[in-house]
Amino acid sequence: MSLKTAGIHHITSFAGDPQGNVDFYAGVLGLRLIKKTINFDAPEVYHLYFGNEQGSPGTIVTFFPAPGTRRGKIGGGQVGITTYVVPPGALEYWENRLHSLKVSFTKATRFGESYIQFRDNEGLHLELVEREEGPANTWTAGGVPADKAIKGFGGAVLFSTDSKHTQDVLKNVLGMVPVGEDADAGYIRYQTTGDLGNLIDLPIKNVPPGSGGAGTVHHIAWRAQDDTEHQAWNEWVRQHGLGTTGIIDRQYFNAVYFREQGGILFEIATDPPGFTVDEELNELGHKLMLPEWYEPQRSLIESNLVPIEPRVIKQD
Hints:
The protein is of the alpha+beta class. The chain has a single domain (8-303), classed as 2,3-Dihydroxybiphenyl 1,2-Dioxygenase, domain 1 (Roll), CATH 3.10.180.10. It has five helices and 16 strands. Strand 2 and strand 3 (42-51) form a beta hairpin. The longest helix is centred in the C-terminal third of the chain and has 13 residues, at 227-239. It is globular and about 50 Å long. The mean pLDDT is 96. Keywords: Dioxygenase, Oxidoreductase. One of its GO terms (molecular function) is dioxygenase activity.
């Protein structure tokens, strides 16, 4: 048996300011707030999901924003940079937009591609790159036109405390193919079979450990096409000597978690059922959605959460 992931399903991070989180990802980046729910393991904390109009796998970034969360340190054992992909010719638009919204950025080159790199309101490291592949985003918000809108993930840069072991997991467990090495930048690149979230860059040298907290990634999730394949993934990972949590119901997908030897928390997540399982497409993100076992506590849960809403951010 051999399994191959199509690429990134979602990336989940910590944050401290719920409204600030919405302002940045919906207001600045123009993503759709597709689900407003809670951390099932800590119901006093929001779990917010942003993505394209449908919340398709490969576009979903999620956050646990909680006031008072301490600031983390980006480093080994984490996703170091989250990469978003935009249509060809869109980078100039994004340079102007970020400048007008007072988001400072720098430019970088890796594997012959040009990137705009910047940080969100909590310090999370992000970048934009132009690529042809991947469907266009049909969602327009915050003044971002459809032909310039973020399509989803271009991939990610993984910071590993043990690069050789992480490379082994990417290749021999997740089924990625090494497609290049950028000696000048010090990265090796792996590719998956999908058209979004499909290029993973990894520093060849080990990265000193980071620490969790606001402005850092909690975990990165890889795609499984259905429940049958997901069960096979659980066994496949265990066969490679990596302990898993077993299958966990996350309402909008099923999840299996494991930590690879470089310290990064990986998840395998199913594409279905998706975010319309409890809301209509045109209603996504409007209401606080709770799993049925938390519904009896709705009033208490809502009273403990800071009100949030997507809003337009004024440009200079």
